[in-house]
Amino acid sequence: MNHNGHYVYLLVYVDDILVTGSSSSLVQRIIEDIARKFFIKDMGALGYFLGLKAIRTPNGLHLMQRKYITDLLNKVDMLHAKPVSTPLPSSPKLTLNSSTTLSDPHEYRMIVGSLQYLALTRPDISYAINKLSQYMHRPTTDHWQAVKRVLRYLSGTLTHGIFLQKQKNPMLHAFSDADWAGDSDDYVSTNAYIIYLGSQPISWTSKKQKGVARSSTEAEYRSVANTAAEVRWVVSLLRELGLPIRQTPTIYCDNIGATYL
After folding, report:
1. Residue of 69, 88, 127, 136 with fewest CB within 10 Å of its CB?
2. What is the mean pLDDT of residues 186-199?
3. What mean pLDDT, rounded, does the chain reach?
4. CA distances from residue 28 to 40, 45, 54, 225 in whole angstroms, order as listed
5. How far apart are alpha carbons 65 and 121 in whole angstroms?
6. Which domains are assigned to the chain?
């Protein structure tokens, strides 16, 4: 909402609403207008919302899901597990038919499903979650050990999250990459991107491509194309929010062939 140069934003999820804006008096007026038509409870300044903890500092806003992680670790009795430095090992790679199929996959599916919501503030585990989600239909003991490794990683990084820092005229830029034929089951590449507004990440993904790429250049170029589409959408969204990007966004790619193409 734009009123005399001031913006007010409403984020609505079922019966939970966040209201913020560039004018505190206008924000308060919007809350009062809503209260005249609906019964609402004003919870004051943002602190906790849908499993996300928001900590305000003089430099910006820190978003994390510490309680969500703690509850998950408690549920599987791994709160005090020995931490590891990475979510997944670089080798050996997980495959569809590795080791023995789990007799009861319920816990595996429950944990991986819970981890998907955690990716809202944890881009560092996006690849691991994407990989583990591919085995939901028939998880094995190796897949289960990989899930436990992710949980051990989380037990040592409870306070990690996203820090939204105050910046003037931040530049929009993105990093794109692809793992050519990285899946030894179907040889489909996984592409990933992370988009920054200034120094803070605002959009990221790790996802398998829709078909088999015949070269690393093709895999990387597909990844760049997907990144460009997302960047274009982010630019459009920021414009709607009254935050136009004044510099041309940049996408960084580490493949020379894709860059020349």
Report:
1. 136
2. 95
3. 93
4. 13, 12, 20, 42
5. 7
6. 2-44 (no CATH), 64-155 (no CATH), 168-260 (3.30.420)
